[in-house]
Amino acid sequence: MSSSRDLGCDDGHGLWRVAVEVPAAAAGFFEDALSPYLETMAVMELPAGDVTEMVFTSHTPMIVEGFVQHKPDAELLRRCIREAADPAGMPPPELTIEDQSRRDWLRENRASFPAIDIGRFYIHGSHLQPPPAGSRLNLHVDAAVAFGSGSHATTAGCLRALQALAKKRRYKHILDMGTGTGILALGASKLWPSAAVLAVDNDSASVDMTRSNADQNQLRSRITTLLHAGYRHPRIRSGPPYDLVIANILAAPLVRMAADLATVLAPHGQAVLSGLLSHQETAVLAAHRAQGLYPQGRFRQSGWSTLILGRGRSRQ
Ligand SMILES: C[S@@+](CC[C@H](N)C(=O)[O-])C[C@H]1O[C@@H](n2cnc3c(N)ncnc32)[C@H](O)[C@@H]1O
């Protein structure tokens, strides 16, 4: 059966991938130059993969890529690339434009999606067997139209941060803002089985996916979902103050939402924030310091940062 997300379109629409490979220090210039012409954008490590802290340098190769549903104007994009190369202090990188519309990328992605180990978490799709029962925390998550397969450094950073927190304390009321596939809500629920988790996303496909992943992992009774943008929903505000808030969203929304986060966070609460590039830490921390939230921990992977914040000054 072909899904509406197969993207094999015959109506003049399609899906084109636009990408350049550049050193990490230059990625922001090309991201800014291309973003007005693309519908989604990401900056990722190339090749995918280092998982140690603090190994990222300004020379780490990154891929700046985006997708657009109408055939892009190659000449215009090349001009943008040439203009960005100058302030980035490098020659213009090669521009890749690929027609993706005939690919069932979701199926391909699923098939090529290996199991992922992140500390105690073992994340696998339906095409793979769970590990034998033991001390592993099994997360059954299929690569999906929603974000959150576990392979992205921001998701991995959050899962590492949650495991670090689990060594120190328990949480009862957890809010996962920008839940995607629900992977962090699932992870939190496995780490703190007695916690009630509210998983929120502004994208209905993500909320559906989270519900189905909660079912698939037998966590439906512990994870509630909500379709909403941000913290200003009566169900969030009138709920218990949250002793743990997780938000893997981009830097700009994290900054915008800092005050709202502070209002729903319990006095002794902690927040795990991700989706920011390492050079964006200063801005994200400043916005949260202004709300009385201070850094208590940090994980860096492949150019991305995950921050642990709380009302007390640094515990680490
Ligand atoms: C980077 S993904 C993170 C998904 C998952 N939590 C993970 O860590 O893999 C960000 C998610 O936040 C959602 N999102 C973005 N802005 C939001 C907002 N203002 N309120 C709620 N969800 C938001 C997006 O739809 C997306 O699913």
Describe the structure in your own words.
- The strands form 3 sheets. This protein has a 7-stranded mixed beta sheet, sandwiched between helices. Strands 2-3-1-4 form a 4-stranded antiparallel beta sheet, covered by helices on one side.
- By secondary structure, it is an alpha/beta fold.
- The protein has 10 helices and 14 strands.
- The protein folds into 2 domains: 16-103, Alpha-Beta Plaits, CATH 3.30.70; 152-310, Vaccinia Virus protein VP39 (Rossmann fold, 3-Layer(aba) Sandwich).
- It has helices at residues 24-34, 74-88, 105-111, 153-166, 183-191, 204-216, 234-237, 251-256, 258-264, 281-289; strands at 16-23, 40-45, 61-68, 96-99, 116-118, 121-124, 137-140, 173-177, 196-201, 223-227, 242-248, 265-277, 294-301, 304-310.
- Residues 146-148, 154-155, 158, 177-180, 183-184, 200-203, 206, 229-230, 248-249, 253, 275 line the site of S-adenosylmethionine.
Keywords:
10 helices; disordered N terminus; binds S-adenosylmethionine; 28% strand; alpha/beta; Rossmann fold; Alpha-Beta Plaits; 316 residues; seven-stranded mixed sheet; four-stranded antiparallel sheet; 14 strands; 2 domains
How is the secondary structure organized here?
Elements: E1 16-23, H1 24-34, E2 40-45, E3 61-68, H2 74-88, E4 96-99, H3 105-111, E5 116-118, E6 121-124, E7 137-140, H4 153-166, E8 173-177, H5 183-191, E9 196-201, H6 204-216, E10 223-227, H7 234-237, E11 242-248, H8 251-256, H9 258-264, E12 265-277, H10 281-289, E13 294-301, E14 304-310
Parallel strand pairs: 6-7, 8-9, 8-11, 9-10, 11-12
Antiparallel strand pairs: 1-3, 1-4, 2-3, 5-6, 12-14, 13-14
Bound molecules: S-adenosylmethionine (SAM).
S-adenosylmethionine binds next to helix 4, helix 5 and strand 9.
